[in-house]
Model the fold of this input.
Amino acid sequence: MNFFKISLSVSLLLTCSWVAPVIAAELAAGEQKAATCLGCHGSKGKSNSPQWPNLAAQQSAYLVNQLNAFKTGARSNPVMQPIAANLSDDDINNLAAYFSGQPPVSAGGDTALAESGKAKAAMCLGCHGTSAGGNGQFPRLAGQHPEYLVNQLNSFKEGTRKSGPMQAIAGGLSAEDIKALSAYFGSL
Ligand code: HEC
Ligand code: HEC
Done:
């Protein structure tokens, strides 16, 4: 083994032994900061009211994007904007690490409506993941409160929430489609 290979393997070893403590520190800081969120978003990000989305098991990259969008005002909401404005970049990364690591929850709901939504859901899964668990910037929809999903789809449709793909997609959904799809994803 030449010197380059040895120093490469030593630095890889050092990198690996650093990763675990850094993640643990992020999670601990995120858990501490999350105390200010739980009054609405619930213990471990499982919210008890449909006006507050579940954050448990949500995609970390998506959470970072949304908190930054509230912070800059790109996503408008009178409750979340002032809260996000007080978060640093580190806070946002730590909170995203904490909530994305919590166990997934299911909102449950109207099973007949969910069954009719299932038939329309195929077109959503290419981005939102085969079991709607999300993927990076594409949010998890599985288990989310149906009323919250209906509100967001209507906001995309009306253009009050801006997002390239979702405005066009929601624009093509009827009120019935929106109710059925939301019931289906919430039931997962
Ligand atoms: C007073 C209640 C309240 C508190 C406290 C609160 N939130 Fe929220 N949060 C909301 C509401 C309401 C929404 C839905 C906004 C909307 O309809 O667009 C929301 C939405 C969000 C979203 C978007 C979720 C999604 O699926 O798009 C994120 C992320 C979020 N909150 C993170 C946090 C974090 C992190 C904290 C703590 C630092 C926090 N919230 C504290 C009420 C609250
Ligand atoms: C081309 C990819 C794509 C497809 C297909 C797609 N979405 Fe999305 N969806 C996104 C992205 C990206 C976001 C995040 C938008 C943002 O950053 O604000 C999103 C966000 C959402 C949200 C907001 C979730 C939250 O937690 O606030 C809902 C609800 C949603 N999509 C429902 C659907 C439904 C229902 C379908 C199928 C009819 C669908 N999407 C199809 C890309 C897609």
Q: What stands out?
A: The chain has a mean pLDDT of 92. Residues 36-37, 39-41, 51-53, 55, 63, 66-67, 77, 79-80, 83, 95, 139, 151 surround heme C (ligand 1) (CB under 6 Å). Residues 122 and 130 are 9 Å apart (CA to CA). The radius of gyration is 19 Å.
